[in-house]
Amino acid sequence: MSAETEADRAPRTLLALYDEALPAVYGYFVRRCGDRGTAEDPPDEWDAELDRIVAEQVLARLNEQHRTVLALRYMDDCSVGECAELIGRTVHATEALLVRTRRAFREQYPHREGGRP
């Protein structure tokens, strides 16, 4: 296995920075808004954007077959049968491929403290 590169560490570094800054940012909003409820109501689109960035980096490290089946199934919202037809496999083989692909994606996805992505 090759050594971890700067690009591989970037998502974890960004997550750590976010986790470190969150209390200060939250405190700022509480002081400005006057109450916790209002401070918590502005939607936190940063989490979704950060997840998208990390997911794209993980996808880029997967092999082409894995990227294709994940994109068809979860981005293009194809059924397993449609995925099978598009990649030229049986439904059963496509289901097995999706299981292996999801496992590979989870193994590559950086985990926050506590073991959860």
UniProtKB/TrEMBL annotation:
Pfam families: Sigma70_r4_2 (PF08281). Gene3D superfamilies: Winged helix-like DNA-binding domain superfamily/Winged helix DNA-binding domain (1.10.10.10). Keywords: DNA-binding, Sigma factor, Transcription, Transcription regulation. It comes from the Bacteria. Coiled coil: none annotated. GO terms for biological process: DNA-templated transcription initiation. Residues 56-104 form the RNA polymerase sigma factor 70 region 4 type domain. The keyword Transport does not apply. One of its GO terms (molecular function) is DNA binding. Belongs to the sigma-70 factor family. ECF subfamily. This is RNA polymerase sigma factor 70 region 4 type 2 domain-containing protein. It comes from Mycolicibacterium psychrotolerans.
